[in-house]
Amino acid sequence: MTPATASPVTPDFDVLIIGAGLAGLYQLYRVRELGLSACVIEAGSDVGGTWYWNRYPGARFDSESYSYGFSFSPELLQDWSWSEHFAPQPETLRYAQHVAERFQLRPHIRFGRKVESARWDEPGRVWRLQLDDGSQPCARFLITAIGALSVPTLPRIPGIESFQGVSCHTANWPKEPVDFTGKRVAVIGTGASGVQTIQEVAKTAGHLTIFQRTPNWCAPLHNGAITDDEQREIKAGYSDILQRCRESPAGFIHTPDPRRAVDVPPAEREAFWEKRYTERGFGIWMGNFRDVLVDREANALMSDFVARKIRQRVKNPVVAEKLIPKNHGFGTRRLPLETRYYEVYNQPNVELVDLTETPIDRVTDTGIRTSAREFEFDIIVYATGFDALRGAYDRIDLRGRDDISLQDLWRGGARTFFGIQNAGFPNLLMVMGPMCALGNIVRSIEYNVDWVAGLLRHMRDHQLSRVEVRPESVDAWMEIVRKASIGLLSNEVNSWMTGVNSNVDGKSERVLARYSGTGPEFRAKADAVAAGGYRELDLNA
Ligand code: N01
């Protein structure tokens, strides 16, 4: 990709990609398809990203397996058979490995290396990276595929390092299985990872103590094996499945019911919710009445329905009340999907500790001390979440033109163009950076990677070697992001989706952290940029 006015520097690669998760793998595939040389830098010892690190017991999809896989290769869609409606983590890791092998991606990946810093060299027109093994590769373009939920965070509790038993974070789980049989186990955290872990560990632990700070609204997953007939139906129906995902607001196969909950007669509304509660997956969240996530009255009615379900399922009424969220409505945080999660609390070997009543004072060498008492454990599981969305960017010293640091640029909150570009950072392209649309993640990854590949193709075809977003284009996108956030109840609630993480300095306040409009709207706007010849970007030879 050598331009007419190229610098004297010949880069090691046309493109360096950080991360060999599903985004990095697909980006590598697309970049190589363009005939560009590329290298991926990956911290893990294998591909898979999220599915490489999150090996905790019970980890699995909450998206229907067949709506999650890559769609770019019809042969891959036909050849790969998901075993369950919501595939478990080992299967998804095998899928990532299969993709890497099938498309001969492995030779272009350097495993076990971390990027410490990346610096734009303006005269040389290259990105210069510093890796933790001392090497310093450079490339014309840097593409970050470093994930929105890839930096696990531990609670800020004194004494964590003093614990003499086994401690694991769900997102940094050991490769060797952890045996819980007969053990005294603590789980801290009750988000999607905590819920999946708890319902699995409760099967074998001698005693399980769950430390809950905020309960979440959870709904049944209804997983099951995919029968041969279903498999045939899925494979014959991929174009329809993918079309449904494309048209739905967040890339899932579920679309909202066009009616408003508040307009539907109570008996009919109740019957609709009962039906949704018995169906697979996110239908109860994404396929609900259209006002449930935006209208307080509708949301309160829905919350009341699920609260009644929790009361029916948890025998001890005091425990049931503790498990019912009081500070946020149904679906305003990411909905954990569960399999007999609430029934776990009926088991004699399970105990719930409400941290709002008795907070943790410290972790000791033998367990956990709360304000009320001392607990002894063999294993402590931290299901305490991530420094989300911008966390992975905050950990690399990224320097753009005139030595601007990305941390400085984002000091008052991340500001990007579609989550892809930053003003002052030429030739840095982010796959799913802050302010992009999230949703069913591989659907979003494919779109973003294709958009980036489209830009690279345009530059190659027009002999352009430098791209930088115009500051006014970032302003315009941020205004769209701001407007899209208005009215969504989820934007009024603390969660990783609003950039809050109590375990990270400076992240206690809600900020604009993602584009919360719909996928179709996001794609229409990004498509228009490409169709208009990228006028929002400054492109040079
Ligand atoms: O993380 P979370 P997660 N003391 O941030 C608690 C995706 N995912 O890993 O709510 C005590 O949701 C914290 O409490 P609070 C999915 O997008 C996908 O579970 O802050 N507790 C909360 O309960 C999901 O949304 C899948 O009060 C502390 C928990 O830890 C995202 O990943 C599966 C604490 C963190 O919950 C993140 O989920 C799993 C402290 N100091 C995850 N600090 C699938 O689709 C934190 N907590 C398969």
Any overview of this molecule?
The structure is a single chain. With 541 residues, the chain is of the alpha/beta class. The protein has a domain at 13-47 and 105-151 and 388-540: 3-Layer(bba) Sandwich (FAD/NAD(P)-binding domain). Helices cover 32% and strands 16% of the residues. It contains 18 helices and 20 strands. Strands 1, 2, 3, 4, 5, 6, 17 and 18 form an eight-stranded mixed sheet that branches. Strand 14 and strand 15 form a beta hairpin. Helix 1 runs parallel beside helix 16 and helix 16 (441-461) packs parallel to helix 18 (519-531). Bound molecules: 3-acetylpyridine adenine dinucleotide. 3-acetylpyridine adenine dinucleotide binds at residues 60-62, 149, 155, 170, 188-194, 196, 213-214, 334, 355, 383-386, 496, 502-503.
Task: State the gist of this model.
The chain is an alpha/beta fold and 541 residues long. Helices cover 32% and strands 16% of the residues. It has 18 helices and 20 strands.
Quick tags:
18 helices, 32% helix, 20 strands, FAD/NAD(P)-binding domain, 541 residues, binds 3-acetylpyridine adenine dinucleotide, alpha/beta
Q: Describe the largest sheet.
A: 8 strands, mixed
Please tally the β strands and state the result.
Answer: 20
Rounded Rg:
24 Å
The oligomerization state is single chain
Question: Class by helix and strand content?
Answer: alpha/beta
Q: Report the CATH architecture of the domain at 13-47 and 105-151 and 388-540.
A: 3-Layer(bba) Sandwich
What is the 3D shape?
A: globular
Helix content estimate: 25-40%
Bound molecules: 3-acetylpyridine adenine dinucleotide
Under the CATH scheme, which class of the domain at 13-47 and 105-151 and 388-540?
A: Alpha Beta
Distance N to C terminus: 10 Å
CATH superfamily of the domain at 13-47 and 105-151 and 388-540: FAD/NAD(P)-binding domain
- CATH overall fold name of the domain at 13-47 and 105-151 and 388-540: FAD/NAD(P)-binding domain
What fraction of residues sit in β-strands? 15-25%
**Mean pLDDT over the residues:** 97
List low-pLDDT spans: none
